[in-house]
Amino acid sequence: MTSDDPIRRVASRRRQALSLPKRRHHLSLALLALIILISAPMLMARFFGSDSDAQPKGSVSVANLPQGQIPSPLDEKGDTLPDLLADLVPAGENPTDAIAAIDALGNPVGSKPKVTPKALVLPPAAPKAPPIDASLTRQSRFGAIPGPNRDGRTPLEAYRLPQAPQSGRTPVSIIVGGLGINPTLTQRAIDELPPAVTLSFAAQTPALQGWINKARARGHEVLLEIAMEGAGFEASSPGSERTLQVNLSPDENRQHLHYGLSRAQGYAGVINYQGEVLLLRSDTLSPILNEIKASGLGLFIDGSFEAPTVGALASSISLPFKASFGLIDPAPSQSVIEARLANLAAEAKTSPGTLSVGFVYPQTIDAVKGWAATLSSQGLILVPATATLK
Q1: Residue 17: band (very low, low, confident or very high) from pLDDT cuts 50, 70, 90
Q2: Is residue 25 part of a domain?
Q3: Which one-letter DSSP state was computed for residue 66?
């Protein structure tokens, strides 16, 4: 293609038309813009401002700040530095000589250190349960059962825990029962309840003697629960074959009682498990109470129902007996149990030696622990259940 080609001539002219402005042109434009920016405020003030705007219109007075001062205990007249050696160095003596003659404990060098005896007050220890005495038994077809020894000493006398000094406070008692069926709750009751709380174990508890030994080792007094015919009792129910019943002969009930008593030793008395039917039948109950009396034990009734004839029958044969003021836990509710315990405390203040019975619910364990801690402030003292027997 030749240089005089029309297409090349058009392209050349187009490149010349689109060439960028020169650098000098750019600098001139920038300088003009800067002059305008600097001059604009002065021109506006010149034509639109007023000279009076620059004149002061008033004044503000500012007080002088006081000179700062640092207080010093030596600024006041009469103040002196404390004498740090006043208790160690007599007046007029050289401090170096005096201090050299005193050891690190403040005693003269070469002298025996001063010893100030201090009394250490410990809480009274729980009474220790006496060892199980094999002489306090008699024989039955099921093995050894409780009975007085040749000297006439009874299991009640041997295994009841001594009552703590009352120190002017009114005694009150609690039995927590149903132990042995649930091992976890049984262990909690043994370990956590105050030793003055009496514990009762179900006669059908597996390894019953081991549990009784643990409870006695912790300082608890122990009772044995005897199953008695109650409302809705069914003879065919599992575990009911050893229950004392109104339709059994005196000898059959005696054998059932002996079986329960033979399960362990070391308990001071017995307490009913149910019995709403049997305990209202004096004809059936009388031989049973005679057998408990022959065993040298005390008798307790849990108070879950009215059994007015029991006390009269027990008194007629000089059987140590106590009926509960009522259950502290008719339902496993913390608020119900705490209300019942408050009622128990109020009753005990007017009737010393009041007794109540509870079941080994977790709520019962917690409530009794908290309640027992308040007894001293209420003028009460917790004592073992056998202290209430009459």
Answers
A1: very low
A2: no
A3: P
